[in-house]
Amino acid sequence: MLFNPRILIAEDESGIADTLQYVLRTDGFVPVWCPTAQEAIAQFTAEPPALAILDIGLPDMSGFELFKRLQALPGGAQVPMLFLTARSDEIDRVVGLELGADDYVAKPFSPRELVARVRTILRRSGRNGQSAPTVAPASAPSPAVPFAVDSERMQIRYYGHLLELSRYEYGLLRLLVQRPGRVFTRDELLRQVWDESSESFDRTVDAHIKTLRAKLKAIAPNIEAIRTLRGTGYALNEELPPGV
Questions:
Q1: Distance between CA atoms of 194 and 184, rounded to whole angstroms?
Q2: What confidence tens digit (pLDDT) does each residue in 133-150 have?
Q3: How many CA atoms lie within 13 A of 117 on its CB side?
Q4: Which 8-state DSSP code applies to residue 62?
Q5: In the chain, what is the greatest distance between 2 CA atoms, to the nearest angstrom?
Q6: Sign of the alpha-carbon dihedral angle for 151, 217, 145, 180
Q7: Considering only 2-16, 38-52, 83-97, which range has the smallest mean pLDDT?
Q8: φ and ψ at 103, to 5 degrees?
């Protein structure tokens, strides 16, 4: 069954909000504009959207705090979120990524590029308005295999459990899984996982590795799947047990 994905926009600048609503609506989305964090919480509570775009500089609450409150609402943890901000400081970017945001866009931005990012996030999360394809039970990966990568769906399973990964978490883990034991420097990870046009930093990689480790630990608490080589980079543990 098809539907038009509902996109929540928490943005206090009416000019930017109008532009976002226009480009989203022309692409088949249903934008819902909230100029304050409190209105965003109310709209989210009434009906969780397919995706939320959060401005960090809201008048009544920071976008970071709003993110945490929305995540705590029923269904909130399953809604992908994208930060929108006029500030491009590294610390803001790192904080947003450490919280678990799916993407981060600094103003000024191309509205069409932002819509393209929204579509990419929705495709990855399976909330793009199309029913999920039917998969035969026999095709499910065995829990005895530490990692199973499905490149077509951009999904990775860890000991049989489907990981909820952001775009860059997926890219990082996929690269590490392809070469167990191979040490990747932060610069290599930035070049191979992030877009060429992205303004990324070493700490961006560290933030994503931190969230990846937390998600892997939630499934296998006693296993260190990703090794840190201090001052160098990261590698996938090549001696993972076959099962947990």
A1: 14
A2: 333 333 344 444 689 988
A3: 25
A4: B
A5: 54
A6: positive
A7: 83-97
A8: -165, 170
Q: 69 with 92: CB under 8 angstroms? A: no
Task: For strands 81-85 and 103-106, give the pairing.
Answer: parallel
| Chain-centroid distance, C-alpha 234 | 20
Selection from 167, 138, 141 nearest residue 154 by Cα: 167
Q: CA 56 to CA 48: how far, in whole Å?
A: 20
State the average pLDDT over residues 109-122.
86
CA distance 139 to 192: 30
Helices (H), the chain: 14-26, 37-46, 63-72, 90-99, 111-125, 167-178, 186-193, 202-219
User: How far from chain centre, in Å, is Cα 146?
Assistant: 22
> pLDDT digits over 25-70, tens only?
999 999 999 999 999 999 999 999 999 999 988 999 998 899 989 9
Which of 145, 175, 169, 171 has its CA nearest to residue 157?
A: 145
Q: Which two three-digit tokens encode residue 138? A: 């026999």
Percentages helix, strand, coil for the chain (3-state, rounded to 5) are: 40, 20, 40
User: Which residues are CB-contacts of 114 (< 8 A; sequence separation ≥ 6)?
Assistant: 20, 23, 53, 82, 84, 105
